[in-house]
Design goal:
Layout lengths: L4 H11 L4 H8 L4 H16 L7 H9 L7 H13 L3 E5 L2 E3 L10 E4 L4
Helix pairs in contact: 1-2, 1-3, 1-4, 2-3, 3-4, 3-5, 4-5
Length: 114
């Protein structure tokens, strides 16, 4: 059975490695946008700069069956994290300007902060 993003967050939180603190926040009862921010950070940190995550992974991890309702917020939070320099947003393998106009699927990767 394939691992779910929620299960991945639980493993990250339990491991005390990169992203553990953020994963615990994402799994907690903080406000939704704070949990999305923490989920994106935890997943990106855990996967490292050689890999990436998708906004839908964070939405699925904390939104359960209603994850699609969180997608606009997840993409917006990803923009905020990228604008702050915490992550990079890529599209078709190239870094995009978080303040720019882009549409379609994106990926999020850490800039190596850990």
């Amino acid at each position: 059975m394939a691992s779910t993003p929620h299960t991945e967050l639980v493993r990250i939180a339990d491991a005390e490695g990169p992203g553990a603190t953020a994963a615990r926040t994402a799994l907690g009862d903080s406000p939704l946008r704070e949990r999305l921010r923490a989920a994106i950070s935890a997943l990106a940190d855990h996967r490292g700069p050689a890999s990436s995550t998708c906004p839908s992974d964070a939405a699925r991890a904390i939104g359960g069956a209603e994850w699609r309702d969180l997608m606009d917020d997840a993409r917006e939070v990803a923009r905020e994290l990228a604008a702050e320099g915490d992550v990079e947003i890529t599209q078709h393998g190239k870094t995009v300007d978080p303040q720019g106009q882009w549409r379609g699927p994106i990926r999020i990767r850490t800039r190596g902060r850990q």
